[in-house]
From TrEMBL:
Coiled coil: none annotated. This is Fungal lipase-type domain-containing protein. Belongs to the AB hydrolase superfamily. Lipase family. Keywords: Chloroplast, Hydrolase, Lipid degradation, Lipid metabolism, Plastid, Transit peptide. InterPro entries: AB_hydrolase_fold, Fungal_lipase-type. One of its GO terms (biological process) is lipid catabolic process. The lineage of its organism: Eukaryota, Viridiplantae, Streptophyta, Embryophyta, Tracheophyta. One of its GO terms (molecular function) is phospholipase A1 activity. It is found in: Plastid, Chloroplast. Residues 186-337 form the Fungal lipase-type domain. Its main location: plastid. The keyword RNA-binding does not apply. GO terms for cellular component: chloroplast. It comes from Dovyalis caffra. Pfam families: Lipase_3.
Length: 434
C-alpha cells in the first residue's frame, strides 16, 4: 500500500488551493485530465511536492509540544482539528510512507522483504524530504507460525519468516529540535506485506501477555491480552534474527544512554499491521524502562489490538494513543468484538455492542472481546468529494488517510471545501513514483 494521493504541504486552506493550482488539478481545469498533463513535468512536480511537506512544517511547537503529543489526551485539538496537530499527524504519516517506499515488495528480487535502502540514506532516498532525522536502526519482524514440511517445495517468498518492518529515526537537526521543543525519536512501521504476515493477521484470538499477572491462557485470564498474531510478530525470533521486541529494546536503551538528559519523546507510528505493532511497542517501552519519557502512538487504519485490561495498563503507564480511523475502513472493525463505548475499563460485565443478550453471553466466554484504545480521530471517505473510488482497498490506503486528515475540519464540517484531490494510487503507480 503506497502513497496514492499527495497531500498538501501546509494545512491551511490557501495552501491547499495553491497546491491544487500548482498541479493544474483545480475544478476550473475541466479541459485537462490527469493523463493530459505533461508526464515529465508532472513526475517532477509530484516528487517535488512529496519532498516539501516536512520541511514546510515550520510551526514552532515550543513549550506546547506535550499537548500535541497527547499529554491531555488531545482535548480541544480534535474537533475542530487544530492545524498544528494536523501538520504533525501528516508529518508522522510520511514517516510511515517512507517505510513502505523502502520495502522491497518484489518476490523475484534477491532482496525481497528487505529494505531497498541503507540505513544512512533511507529517509532521503524514500523521497519524503529533509526531515532533520537520522535513521539509527533497521527493524525486522519474525513470524512464529510453524511451517509444514511441504513448504520447502513452495516459492521462497511463501515461507519468508523474517522481513524488514520499519526503522528507528532520531531527530538530529538543531533547528528541528528547537521547533519541536525536544529531541524526538520516531519508530515507524509499514503494514502487512508478506505471506506469513497475512497468516499472523488471521490468528485473531486474544492471548495473555507473558509475565503480566497471567499464569495461563484462556477466557479466565484476568490480565492484559492481545491479538495472538500481532504478539507473535513482535516477540518471535530465529537462530539468525532477534525478535522485533529485542531490537526495539536494544535501540531504546542506546537512545536513553545518549540523550537521556535531554527533553525527549518517543513517537511510534504505523499503518494497518504497523499500527498494531506500534501499540505493542509503546506498551513494551513503558513496561520495560523506568522513568521513560513521553511515549505517543499515532496510528493509521489500525485493527483492534487487545482487551480491556490491556487498555487499562496502557492508560496507567501514561501511553498516549491517537488512532486515525476511517469509518469506511473495514480493517478498523476487526478482529473480534468490542465492548460498548460507554463501558469503561471497570469490573462491569462485558457487553458486546449491537448483539442480542444470548450472543453477548456466548461471546463473554471466548477470547474474542476486544476494547478500543486511546483517543480517536474519526474520518470518512464518504465526506471527501475528491475520492473517485471508495472500495475496501482505497478506504484502507495510507494515502486516503493522509488525504482525509488534510481535508478534515470538524464533525460538523467534515471536509474543507477548498481541499483538492491530488493524484490517486493508480496515477502515482502509472508515473512510477515509489
Amino acid at each position: 500500500m503506497r502513497l496514492g494521493a499527495v497531500v498538501s504541504a501546509r494545512p491551511s486552506c490557501n495552501a491547499l488551493a495553491s497546491a491544487s493550482k500548482h498541479f493544474n488539478l483545480t475544478p476550473s481545469n475541466t479541459t485537462h485530465s490527469y493523463s493530459q498533463v505533461s508526464l515529465p513535468s508532472l513526475k517532477h512536480k509530484l516528487k517535488e511536492h512529496c519532498s516539501t511537506f516536512i520541511t514546510n512544517s515550520s510551526t514552532k511547537l515550543g513549550k506546547k509540544w506535550m499537548e500535541y503529543q497527547g499529554v491531555n489526551n488531545w482535548e480541544g485539538l480534535l474537533d475542530p482539528l487544530d492545524d498544528n496537530l494536523r501538520s504533525e499527524i501528516i508529518r508522522y504519516g510520511l514517516f510511515v510512507e517512507a517505510a513502505y517506499r523502502s520495502f522491497d515488495f518484489d518476490p523475484s528480487s534477491p532482496t525481497y522483504a528487505a529494505s531497498k535502502f541503507p540505513r544512512n540514506s533511507l529517509l532521503a532516498r524514500s523521497g519524503i524530504g529533509e526531515t532533520g532525522y537520522r535513521t539509527t536502526k533497521h527493524l525486522r519482524a519474525t513470524s512464529g507460525v510453524q511451517l509444514p514440511r511441504w513448504i520447502d517445495k513452495a516459492p521462497s517468498w511463501v515461507s519468508t519468516q523474517s522481513s524488514w518492518i520499519g526503522y528507528v529515526a532520531v531527530c538530529q537537526d538543531k533547528e528541528e529540535i528547537a521547533r519541536l521543543g525536544r529531541r524526538d525519536v520516531v519508530i515507524a512501521y509499514r503494514g502487512t506485506a508478506t505471506c506469513l504476515e497475512w497468516v499472523e493477521n488471521l490468528r485473531a484470538s486474544l492471548t495473555c501477555l507473558p509475565g503480566k499477572n497471567c499464569n495461563h491462557v484462556g477466557p479466565s485470564c484476568n490480565g492484559p491480552m492481545v491479538e495472538s498474531g500481532f504478539l507473535s510478530l513482535y516477540t518471535s525470533q530465529t537462530a539468525t534474527c532477534p525478535s522485533l521486541q529485542d531490537m526495539v529494546r536494544e535501540e531504546i536503551a542506546r537512545v536513553f544512554e545518549m540523550y537521556g538528559d535531554e527533553p525527549l519523546s518517543f513517537t511510534i507510528t504505523g499503518h494497518s499491521l504497523g499500527a498494531a505493532l506500534a501499540t505493542l511497542t509503546a506498551y513494551d517501552i513503558n513496561s520495560t524502562f523506568e522513568n521513560a519519557p513521553m511515549v505517543t502512538v499515532i496510528s493509521f487504519g489500525g485493527p483492534r489490538v487487545g482487551n480491556r485490561s490491556f487498555r487499562c495498563q496502557l492508560e496507567k503507564s501514561g501511553t498516549r494513543i491517537l488512532r486515525i480511523v476511517n469509518s469506511d475502513d473495514l480493517i478498523t472493525k476487526v478482529p473480534g468484538f468490542v465492548i460498548d463505548n460507554n463501558d469503561t475499563a471497570s469490573k462491569k460485565a462485558v457487553h458486546v455492542a449491537g448483539f442480542p443478550c444470548w450472543f453477548r453471553k456466548l461471546v463473554e466466554d471466548t477470547q474474542w472481546v476486544y476494547a478500543d484504545l486511546g483517543r480517536e480521530l474519526r474520518l470518512s471517505s464518504k465526506k471527501s468529494p475528491y475520492l473517485g473510488r471508495r472500495d475496501a482497498v482505497t478506504c484502507h490506503e495510507l494515502s486516503t488517510y493522509l488525504h482525509l486528515v488534510s481535508g478534515f475540519v470538524s464533525s460538523t464540517c467534515p471536509f474543507r471545501a477548498t481541499a483538492k484531490k491530488f493524484l490517486n494510487k493508480h496515477h502515482v503507480e502509472k508515473l512510477g513514483c515509489r
